[in-house]
Amino acid sequence: MVESFPMPPKKPKISVDLVIPVYNEQGVVEQTYAELCQVIDASPHKFSIYYIDDGSEDGTVASLNALAEKDKRVVVLELSRNFGHQAALTAGIDAAQGDFVISMDADGQHPPEMIPQMVALLEQGYDIVQAQRVEDSALSFKKVTSSAFYSLINTISGTEMVPGAADFRGMSRQAVDALKSMPEYHRFLRGMVSAMGYKSVILPYHETKRVAGRTKYSLGKMFRLAMDAIFSFSLVPLYIGMSAGVMFLCLAALEMVYVYSFWLKGDTSTLAPGWSSLMFIILIASGVILIVLGFIGVYIGYIFQQVKQRPVYHLKKRAE
Q1: What's the Cα-to-Cα distance from 8 to each of 5, 14, 15, 21, 124, rounded to whole Å?
Q2: Taking the CA atoms of the chain, what radius of gyration do you get in angstroms?
Q3: pLDDT per position as a tens digit, 119-139
Q4: What Cα–Cα distance (Å) separates residue 290 from each residue in 240, 244, 281?
């Protein structure tokens, strides 16, 4: 009699959701989608692709809907207007239901070939797999400003952020749920992910060239993102203002002692009116006051926008 042994239970497939914000990428999404499919078609896992149209003004929505019609894995979330890259990412993360969630750009600069490595690291127990761009040796405006920003934010904030780390990352379900519980209106996801403190690993990669078109992150948008990071993760600007105020109080006390010394010596006749120096001090003090009031105003503005509890985005349509 042949003894039979029960078959081991079949390991369930892991579901992986790709979150890809898109803005005016007609003609690009088709190419990057084809490259993406070459990677995920060879994977044993179950994939879904969430494209978030961030108020595109060209034919991007039609291109995405065409992809959704021919591929059941594709889900198109159309926002009511352009809310910005961080809001579009938030919309995709909110909608994703997979065991793992990977966010990436639609322009081809985030190589799809990194996805299997991300999934493998997440399977090993990491909650966050952060892709880090490997910089070349040549200096550029973007490289210099990026290095300066990360040096500044790591110095003034209590959150350590990885230089060269964009929004190309993989997250476990636990990390995704934790991120969704953070209701910031001014969102800087790189800092928010770092602040959560979950087990993470860095995955270096070489950024490839855009498939076509040009970057949607203008200098103004990068500056606003940097301001969101600084004012959301640090109170140092307020401390700078307070320190400047204390410094000028000390200078005023020294000036008072200096003038009083002339009264003690009975030599007040040698005191000059000092109109120019007085105006100089007044202008500097006024400038410091205005800067401090500006810092306070920015923080109050952030608080005002936060307490209104308006949604970070509005969903217009979902197609799948």
Answers
A1: 9, 18, 21, 40, 21
A2: 27
A3: 999 999 999 999 988 876 555
A4: 13, 12, 14
Tokens at 116, concatenated:
């299997």
Token pair of 68 as six digits: 């959704």
Predicted confidence (pLDDT) per residue in 261-315, tens digit: 766 776 666 666 664 467 567 757 776 777 777 777 777 777 776 777 878 889 9
The whole model's pTM is what? Answer: 0.72
Contact 28, 58 (CB under 8 A): no
CA distance 191 to 150: 11
Structure tokens at 286: 């006024």
Helices 173-180, 189-196: crossing angle, 10 deg rounding: 120
Give phi and psi for 179, each to the nearest 5.
-65, -40
* Token representation of residue 253: 């006390």
List, in order, residues 6 or more apart from 239 with CB less than 8 Å away. Answer: none
